[in-house]
Design goal:
The chain has 17 helices and 13 strands. The chain has about 575 residues and is an alpha/beta fold. The chain has two domains: about 260 residues, Type I PLP-dependent aspartate aminotransferase-like (Major domain) (Aspartate Aminotransferase, domain 2); about 150 residues, Aspartate Aminotransferase, domain 1, CATH 3.90.1150. Strands 1-7-6-5-4-2-3 form a seven-stranded mixed beta sheet, with helices on both faces. Strand 10 and strand 11 form a beta hairpin. The longest helix has about 70 residues. The chain is globular, with a radius of gyration of 30 Å. It binds pyridoxal-5'-phosphate. The site of pyridoxal-5'-phosphate has 13 residues, from helix 6. It is a single-pass membrane protein. Its cofactor is pyridoxal 5'-phosphate.
Length: about 575
């Protein structure tokens, strides 16, 4: 019976019913879809929350939340007009001082902010260069500067300059035009691979410095995880003591970074926390051998086991350890395993421009295999400018620097590096012994962990009694500057000062210890008097003030403004205040 023969009213009823049921079906489907989306959301949200709580712990999660509430409160407070005006005023004072410290002023300063209309004579350029090199600065030659200048001696400097001269125009982007540079570059990589016990398939690249090496290692790991596992929300697990270059990598390549604590007394990365952060989005684990702040080598063996168990890349940052850690044993010191002999280690960064004594602008990045290295390659096969392929960030690169590096490695040789290791690490141990054993250092300073290489960090010891003074470690740093022109480094979390011993410092360690004793002794006396007389603590010296500000503002915006001002200053040809 066709519907056309039904009475009109019934037909309408049926049609209405049909459309209602269709609508109901549609509604049901939409409901289902909505529930599905909601469930998916709930799943992703709870997975994220679960991972967060698992990684940071319940306490860490609560503390993190309370910190973010505090930050918001501070931001609101600072935007109140009267607070903002005051903060802006004080900020200007600091920024102006920063500018005064960095940019030379005075009537006799001649500034060049446009091309000279006629080129200068060679003689005039030479004169000007000489006076630029002679500008007032810390005396690194006399061993007064921590780290910074990894000088290999006058003779080596001359040889490097000659190497530059021979290859001034060279660019490794064109290996056919500069076959000598290609050969040297490949040989540098081969030498460093052998130093770090790479397997037969091991491969590497040279880069412009430790930061580029680290950037490339993180980038390659991210690409690998994407291509092999489809990871689109990459995460990496980084010890808080690992170099800031990892933060830069996270920023540049959009990798979420989990910072893992490195607690006392060992100050090595906390392995249970590393484990707790591993999930399907993890693309790489990080360890340092040693780290910059305290010179501590993480437990690379344990990291290696974890990396193997979860089939994850493990990068070991030997940027600072460079040509010291591979020679520790040969130089007579004990060493923990850190290189490719640990099967889980997939990449290592080693700065030839630190303790390799190569000219600045040189570093290497090593991989366990050629396949791992290929993830960092950049290929533009369809480019209108022709097929283009380059191994790392830069396109054109300075061949002169590669020649300088090669010349350094060849002229120093294994025996030279073993000797340098012996002297540098030996001097660091002397310094450590003095801080641990000799008064007044023993009572008022404390060495951070058990450093085994070239860095010694110390914090202010907790006072033994109620009336005993506790020093501000940053004031110790500033007092050392005032007393002997010592340029030591401030580190934070915990507040510490560190010395990275270089060859120029080796000869100055005794004076360093003497000055440290005088400075600490005087500060202790002064504090005792202050306590006895019941006076309040003063404002503190400049480093103490700067780090004091950083601690007292949870959102750190003010300190970030200082940092930006500092960077702006780098490019000011004339003062702006
Ligand atoms: C110096 C250093 C780096 C980065 O080196 P740059 O050459 O300054 O980019 C990385 N890691 C550690 C531990 C370092 O000390």
């Amino acid at each position: 019976m066709g519907s056309s023969r039904l009475p009109v009213s019934l037909r309408d009823t049926l049609a209405a019913q049909r459309s209602t049921s269709r609508r109901r079906l549609l509604e049901l489907n939409i409901d289902l879809l909505r529930n599905l989306v909601f469930l998916l959301f709930l799943f992703r949200w709870s997975r994220k929350t679960y991972r967060h709580v698992r990684g940071y712990g319940l306490l860490g999660t609560v503390l993190g939340f309370s910190l973010s509430v505090k930050k918001t409160a501070y931001r609101l407070l600072q935007s109140a007009p009267f607070v903002r005006a005051k903060v802006q005023r004080e900020k200007r004072v600091v920024i102006r001082q920063l500018e005064l410290d960095m940019i030379p002023t005075g009537r006799d300063v001649v500034r060049h902010t446009a091309l000279p209309s006629e080129g200068w004579s060679e003689e005039r350029v030479r004169e000007e260069l000489k006076s630029l090199a002679g500008m007032v600065r810390p005396r690194w030659e006399e061993g007064r500067v921590s780290g910074t200048v990894y000088h290999g001696g006058e003779q080596l400097s001359r040889l490097q300059t000659e190497a530059f001269g021979t290859f001034t125009v060279a660019n490794p982007l064109h290996p056919d035009v500069f076959p000598g540079v290609r050969k040297m570059e490949a040989e540098i990589v081969a030498m460093v691979l052998s130093l770090f016990n790479a397997p037969a398939d091991g491969a590497g690249i040279t880069t412009s410095g430790g930061t580029e090496s680290i950037l490339m290692a993180c980038f390659a790991a991210r690409q690998k995880a994407y291509k092999e596992r489809g990871v689109t929300e990459p995460e990496m697990i980084v010890p808080i003591t690992a170099h800031a270059a990892f933060h830069k990598a996270a920023d540049y390549f959009n990798i979420k970074m989990h910072l893992v604590p490195c607690p006392a007394p060992s100050y090595k990365v906390h392995m249970p926390s590393v484990y707790a952060h591993i999930n399907s989005n993890t693309v790489i684990l990080i360890g340092s051998a040693p780290n910059y702040p305290h010179g501590i080598i993480d437990d690379i063996s344990a990291l290696s086991r974890l990396a193997l168990r979860y089939s994850l890349p493990l990068h070991v940052d030997c940027c600072l350890g460079s040509f010291l850690v591979p020679f520790l044993e040969k130089a007579g010191f004990d060493a923990d395993p850190f290189d490719f002999r640990l099967k889980g280690v997939t990449s290592i960064s080693c700065d030839t421009h630190k303790y390799g004594f190569a000219p600045k602008g040189n570093s290497t990045l090593l991989y366990r295999s050629k396949a791992l290295r290929a993830y960092q390659y950049s290929l533009s096969i369809d480019w209108t400018g022709g097929m283009y392929a380059s191994p790392s960030i830069a396109g054109s690169r300075p061949g002169a620097l590669i020649a300088g590096c090669w010349a350094s490695l060849m002229s120093i040789g294994e025996s030279g590096y073993v000797d340098a290791c012996h002297r540098i690490v030996g001097a660091t141990r002397d310094l450590e012994r003095a801080v641990r054993e000799e008064e007044p250092l023993r009572s008022y300073l404390q060495v951070v962990g058990h450093p085994k290489v070239s860095v010694l960090a110390f914090i202010a010891k907790k006072p033994a009694g109620k009336d005993e003074p506790q020093l501000n470690i940053y004031e110790v740093k500033d007092a050392m500057k005032a007393r002997g022109g010592w340029d030591l480094n401030a580190t934070q979390d915990p507040a510490a000062v560190h010395v990275a011993v270089t060859l120029p410092i080796v000869g100055a360690v005794e004076t360093l210890v003497e000055d440290l004793k005088v400075v600490v002794g005087a500060m202790v006396e002064e504090e005792r008097t202050r306590i006895r007389e019941g006076r309040k603590k003063g404002k503190g010296t400049s480093t103490a003030q700067l780090y004091g500000v950083a601690v007292s503002f949870p959102d750190k915006t003010i300190v970030k403004d200082f940092a930006v001002a500092f960077l702006d200053n780098l490019y000011k040809a004339k003062p702006e205040f």
